[in-house]
Write a structure and sequence with these properties.
Layout: E1 2-5, H1 14-21, E2 33-37, E3 70-73, E4 78-79, E5 84-90, E6 97-100, E7 103-105, E8 112-118, E9 129-139, E10 145-156, E11 172-177, E12 182-184, E13 189-197, E14 201-205, E15 211-216, H2 224-233, E16 241-249, E17 258-263, E18 266-271, E19 276-278, E20 285-289, E21 306-308, E22 318-320, E23 325-332, E24 335-341, E25 344-349, E26 353-355, E27 366-367, E28 371-374, E29 378-384, E30 391-396, E31 399-405, E32 408-409, E33 423-432, E34 435-442, E35 448-454, E36 459-465, E37 480-485, H3 500-517, E38 521-524, H4 536-543, E39 548-555, E40 569-573, H5 579-592, E41 597-602, E42 615-622, H6 626-631, H7 635-661
Parallel strand pairs: 4-10, 12-19, 27-32, 37-38, 37-39, 39-42, 40-41
Antiparallel strand pairs: 1-2, 3-5, 5-8, 6-7, 6-9, 9-10, 11-13, 12-23, 13-16, 14-15, 14-17, 15-16, 17-18, 20-23, 20-26, 21-22, 23-24, 24-25, 28-29, 29-36, 30-31, 31-34, 33-34, 35-36, 40-42
Length: about 675
């Protein structure tokens, strides 16, 4: 938690800030300057200032001028379905007092502020608008108010439709499921649900006149007697809605199917069958994956992939090659369910798969005659399968585990050409009738890999990258390192309007200079304020032959998060092979700029998913804090951030070199 220090008045204590961070009223002076952050872990490593604990944040420079209120977040008219929100911006001058409601909010010496406040309840339950009122004032030496300003921020929230126990029966029709276009198997069980008053009953009348009851899942113990008692005392407009759910076979949800909700003599009916279209039962339906990516990715087949997910709109687990044929087993709006093999179904974007004509036969994949071909920088494991398979590559210390779905393996011979020591052994086993697992066992730790399709050989190629030569005395010498200044588009914004994209660019430029001074060749994904597409950054990195990807960011929170209790420093990664790099960088971030050690995190980040090199994304500070935004305007703090990443990368490659090569220089 940043600890604000007044330059012209009494310093604030940590306890005062804790009061301000709460949603209750706080009473203190409103004019402060930001000083040391106080929320670093008590077990933080010794930092470059020669002490343990938090790195001292620089004092925010004083700004004096006219009152000018500008709120960066929330935007006027924003939809916030939370009870409390952070609000930050500037009042234009550091000698003003800010009140939000009945609370005095600290103002930094440059006029910036950050607070976590409760969102007032609308006067009526059916209203969706709340108002955050900011009052700013300035006084002279006698305490007389000399200047004032007011800013009102209107925020919206979704209103739950009240479902009373009394009066005419009312049902939340927007909650009825299933909804939207769907294609499913005839025997598939479809979830049917509706939000209705707790004292109602609900059921589905199927297309063949059967009755399928829906049960209360919000409170299954809500009895008829309780319903009658509640009805007698409940106000007319009180919401007493509960969720009723059940499962019905898809072939019973014809156009004649109806969802029925009744209470006393009132009965409401909702159609169900129209959006549900059954897949043909006479033959399977297949589709072929395609990539719609534009920009640099569209020019390179190596970088084109289609993400598959365990659930619709879930995290990306599989990176599949365009041209892969898969069985289509369902459609749910913008997501299509596909079958990998007899045991696994996943979801891909509907726009990323093209349905083939009915009657198209399924793919037949038999892998055999594997070959191992070495080159200077990598080794290719070539697996002829005839057609592109769905697959998953998982690193595990000194081996890569390749799972081939809907593929049978029959390798009569697997020559290892060139007697190369990197790939020591290929071990395979059928884990199911239509699923095969291949282990590529290595003499080195897994460093990077690519999965490619060789059209000439009709083979899947697993390209295994060697650990690069590493100089024991200058670990970065001769390496190619990619430096990524995060954003634009998008990104966080600070209270006085500093954008993340602008804040991290000088950090990335300084990082590039430091890495070059240590002997590395540096490729920058952007070196100007111009926008670079998210999908282009990994392509730039791979084409340059980079040995690591270092992305520089500043953090932000989602709505409803209390920033005073959650901020800190973190490093993110995706693949297991990037975890050691993330750990080294995080340690150095804590030494140089860390306020609280939030640790390293696995996160499904698009720029961290490529596999040819280890990659990390550093979140050094939270730009929404006045003192942290101010620090990122300073060259010395930009250098601190850059040096932390440079030191972390150097120590990572130093440790990797010792592990693989011992203390011998490889250059």
């Amino acid at each position: 938690m940043p600890q604000f220090h007044a330059l012209a008045r009494t310093a604030f204590s940590l306890a005062a800030l804790l009061v301000l961070a709460s949603c209750g009223a706080g009473r203190t002076t409103g004019r402060v300057a930001t000083g040391a952050s106080s929320n670093a872990s008590p077990d933080a490593v010794s930092n470059i200032d020669g002490r343990r604990g938090p790195v001292l944040m620089p004092v925010v420079p004083a700004v004096r001028g006219a009152i000018a209120v500008r709120v960066q977040h929330p935007a006027n008219g924003a939809l916030l379905n939370v009870d409390s929100t952070f609000i930050f911006g500037t009042v234009g001058t550091g000698d003003a007092t800010l009140r939000i409601g009945d609370r005095v909010i600290p103002v930094a010496e440059n006029g910036a502020f950050l607070a976590f406040v409760a969102i007032p309840r609308p006067p009526q339950a059916t209203d969706s608008i709340s108002f955050l009122v900011l009052d700013v004032s300035r006084t002279d030496a006698t305490g007389a108010i000399t200047d004032t300003a007011r800013r009102v921020i209107r925020v919206r929230r979704s209103v739950v439709k009240p479902l009373p126990l009394n009066g005419p029966l009312v049902v939340d029709s927007a909650s009825v499921q299933p909804r939207g276009a769907m294609r499913v198997r005839a025997d598939e069980l479809m979830r049917v649900s509706v939000r209705a008053p707790a004292n109602a009953v609900a059921w589905v009348r199927t297309g063949d006149a059967r009755t399928v009851p829906l049960v209360r899942t919000s409170d299954v113990n809500f009895t008829t007697a309780q319903a009658a008692s509640a009805r007698a005392t409940a106000p007319v407009n009180t919401d007493n809605g509960m969720l009723f759910t059940g499962e019905v076979r898809a072939d019973q949800l014809t156009s004649a199917a109806r969802l029925m909700v009744a209470r006393d003599a009132d009965t409401l009916r909702f159609p169900l069958g129209n959006p549900v279209v059954q897949l043909p039962t006479s033959a399977r339906v297949y589709g072929v994956l395609r990539s719609r990516t534009t920009g640099l990715v569209a020019q390179s087949d190596t970088d084109q992939v289609v993400s598959a997910r365990p659930i619709p709109d879930g995290f990306s687990k599989w990176a599949l090659l365009p041209g892969t044929q898969l069985e289509i087993t369902g459609v749910q709006g913008a997501q299509t369910r596909v079958r990998f093999d007899s045991q696994l179904e996943t979801w891909v974007p509907t726009d990323d798969i093209v349905a083939l004509a009915e009657g198209t036969p399924g793919a037949r994949r038999i892998a055999g005659g594997m070959r191992v071909l070495p080159t200077r920088d990598y080794v290719d494991v070539i697996i002829p399968t005839g057609m592109r398979p769905a697959f998953l590559v998982e690193p595990d210390e000194k081996k890569l585990v390749l799972t081939l779905y809907d593929t049978r393996l029959s390798p009569e011979i697997s020559p290892m050409i060139g007697n190369d020591p990197l790939v020591q052994q290929l071990a395979w086993e059928p884990v199911a009738t239509d699923r095969t697992r291949l282990e590529v066992r290595l003499s080195q730790p897994v460093f990077g890999w690519l999965a490619l399709w060789d059209d000439n050989r009709r083979a899947l190629v697993l390209r295994v990258r060697r650990v690069p030569p590493i100089n024991a005395s200058r670990p970065l010498a001769g390496l190619v390192l990619a430096v990524d200044a995060g954003h634009p588009p998008g990104g966080a914004t600070g209270p006085t309007g500093l954008t993340e994209a602008d804040a991290v660019l000088p950090v990335a430029q300084k990082l590039a200079t430091m890495l070059r001074a240590r002997g590395a060749t540096v490729v920058m994904t952007r070196d100007t304020r111009e926008t670079v597409a998210l999908t282009d950054r990994p392509v730039i990195t791979r084409r340059a032959g980079a040995h690591a990807f270092l992305s520089v960011h500043l953090n932000a929170f989602g709505d409803g998060t209390n920033p005073f209790t959650n901020h800190g420093t973190s490093t993110l990664f995706f693949h297991q092979t990037s975890e050691p790099l993330a750990r080294f960088v995080q340690t150095e971030l804590m030494r140089h700029i860390g306020q609280r050690d939030l640790g390293i995190h696995y996160q499904s980040l698009a720029i961290a998913r490529p596999t040819w090199y280890p990659s990390i994304l550093a979140e050094g500070l939270f730009l929404m804090f006045p003192d942290q935004e101010s620090a990122m305007r300073r060259e010395d703090w930009q250098e601190r951030y850059a040096r932390a990443i440079a030191d972390g990368a150097e120590k990572y490659f130093e440790a990797l070199g010792r592990r693989v090569y011992g203390d011998r220089d490889q250059q």
